[in-house]
Amino acid sequence: MFFRFMRGRFTFKIYFLLTIIALLTIFAYLFPHFKFYPIAPVTVPPNGLQSRTTRHLSKLLTVVFRQFEEFENDIADSVQSFVSAFPNMPVVILCQGLQYPPFQFSATNETLRNVKIVPLEFRLNALPHELNPLTYLNTEYVLIVPDSTRVSRRVLQQMATAATTFPSQGIAVGVTNSRLICQKVKWNYVDWTLQYSKDPSGKLCDAIHGQHALLIKTSLLQTFPQPFAFPFPESLYLQSTVRKIKIQIVDGKFGAGRSVLKSPAAKQKASKLARDARISLYKQLGVKMVVREDSRVQWFGCKRDTQRCFPSVQGTPSYILSGRNTPPCCRRNIRRTAAHVLRTLQLAGARCWLETTSLLGAVVRSDILPWAEYAEIGIHASDVPRVSLLQRGGADSEGFIWERATKGHYYRVGYSATNNIYALVLPFTAKNGTMWPADWVMAHQKEFPERHLHPLAQIQFGGRQAPAPNDARAFLDLKIGNSAVEKCNKLGPKLLYP
Question: How confident is the model at residue 27, as a pLDDT?
Fold first, then answer.
């Protein structure tokens, strides 16, 4: 057939070829519009989170090194781990001052083009933004990495995916075999107290103890007053806690680098630097007491050989004006002083009792008032000669300082020669069935019927029994006003410091 076609007329051949070309053109035009199968096409939406984290990790986050000792570290090799894996990823090393000895980088200048060493020490010739570490964080996320860490691409990918899924949280992973402890943190500003406890969930934490890396949004860090303050990361987690930002622990581990701080001297030096930084931070924040996960109590306030935590009171104590109670260390020392004075007076055979504010605290809380400035103890004026320390004054065998007030016939017992926390000893004289202040005048102290002392009662006060008037509520109503206990519960310090 093909042979006949080739021997046919030329005109026929032309028409035939044009017809074939026309049919092919029409078929090519119409074929895409035909639907041979009635099944609708399946649309797969692009996974924006996955594409961002897989292809743009270097643009998504900045690596920050803050946890290292300047005198001995593995920062150079830790940085090299990230530079090798992500050559274009920004790396920032935050130092307290000029790093010495310098980091021994083995990479070339071209390899380190995205690595910045930022000293944060105060410099007269520095511009304000140069001393602000947030200036150097220009990506959406920040990866904060401890010393001696080796990056894992897979784990970093996992962290980035979790961070974009939960943008209001921080994402943490451990480093090598470190055991991470998930902590709850309670910051009690009013009581100057910081409390840690273990979170049984173990995944969503206020703070994390143990060597770990943290991925967090830069915009969250920008809400912190000092996100990279020492001790780090403890200070960071205190700031995130008050903002209710949680830290989520995800599975996976970064690798470990070279072991550092192996010698006892290096460990001791690092421990001292961390302790000093912690004390400095607590002083700035006004943390006086820390309760650890195992219920251990650590004190960072005043001691016997230091000054008390608040200045001399002129009207209203400074801590009340700042919206706080008496620092817990000062309350403890007031409690100790009151117990010592009561014990000394009773051993001397003097009739004594809790007075006004201390009695109010005993009734309301079985302790001193949370905003107490001192303790008040009443004594029969006729029994004062029995107590030799009230007569001669000075320091007793336990270091408490006994002295008579320069104005008025009453006494003050100080916690020590340095720490001027004190308890007042207030003599009352019996006249015609009434107890009168013995030649002294003090706010909230009035005369009262002698029957309140016959007999004396016992009341719980600071963990032990203390002598008290036999009808404490009626006694307080006479001294402070009707419904004194109820007013105290309602008004707090405004009852005495309006």
Answer: 55
Question: Which pLDDT does position 46 carry in this prediction?
Answer: 40
pLDDT over 90 (residue 24): no
The CA distances from residue 435 to 407, 414, 441, in Å, are 20, 26, 14
Digit-coded pLDDT (tens) for 325-339: 999 999 999 999 999
Is residue 79 helix, strand or coil?
helix
Tokens 């405004």, residue located: 494
- Per-residue model confidence as pLDDT tens digits over 285-318: 999 999 999 999 999 999 999 999 999 999 899 9
In residues, how long is the chain? 498
DSSP 278: H
d(CA 483, CA 498): 17
- Label residues 285-322 b or e (16+ Cβ within 10 Å = b): ebbbbbbeeeeeeeebbbeeeeebbbeeeeeebebbee
Pair 317, 429: CB distance under 8 Å: no
- HSE of 430 in the Cβ direction (CA atoms, 13 Å)? 12
Indicate the residue type of 418.
T
Helix or strand (DSSP H, E) at 220:
helix 218-221
- DSSP designation for 120: -
